[in-house]
Amino acid sequence: ILNALAGEKIPIYGKGENVRDWLFVEDHAEALLLVVEKGGIGRSYNIGGENERTNLELVEAILKILDEKRPRTSGSYKDQITYVTDRPGHDMRYAIDPGRIRTELGWRPSVTVEEGLRKTVDWYLKNEHWWQAFGQKRYPQATELLILADSGGANSTRSRVWKHHLKKQLCDGHGLTVTICHYPPGASKWN
């Protein structure tokens, strides 16, 4: 999206035939929160949208939305696509089986890929002040990660395990602090 809006090349590996399972970011965040709140201790949950598309199909869908919402003065954003040499050993397909999160926790994506792409493009178009700072290296560095969780209290084993895991996986070497805010079981998570 940023390359398209900046008028830069949009690189696609190989012929763009690599297949991925695409998921809207808010659906992913909701699934992660559900796993924290209701997932079984020690259980693994694959989060997938069962929405496989090739990289080229996804890029073309994004560019079509941009052509509708913010047309270029001439041509299409698709004109910016450039094909680059694929990485050696690049996986042609990543497949995710989200069966466990569906059956055990009842989670499903709330939007289709197309709806998620529209929402994503809309966000970027409405928040240029935020993403333009990246190109100018003026963005603030994140220093804290806040997690809302009902995990039995701040000193519970589950809380300590989650906090340790999150710090190790997300924060080591990045200067981030993890804060887990607990709320009582049954309470609204947003109060």
Task: Give your account of this protein's structure.
The protein is an alpha/beta fold. About 40% of the residues lie in helices and about 15% in strands. The strands form three sheets. Strands 1-4 form a two-stranded parallel ribbon. Strands 2-3 form a two-stranded antiparallel sheet. Helix 3 (about 55-70) packs across helix 5. The chain is globular. About 10% of the residues are buried.
Q: What average pLDDT do the residues reach?
A: 79
- Low-pLDDT sequence parts: 142-161, 167-178, 180-191
Shape: globular
**Number of helix segments?**
7
Sheet bearing the most strands, described? Answer: 2 strands, parallel
Q: In whole angstroms, how far apart are the ends?
A: 34 Å
Provide the descriptors you would attach to this structure in a database record:
two-stranded antiparallel ribbon, 41% helix, disordered C terminus, alpha/beta, 191 residues, two-stranded parallel sheet, 14% strand, 7 helices
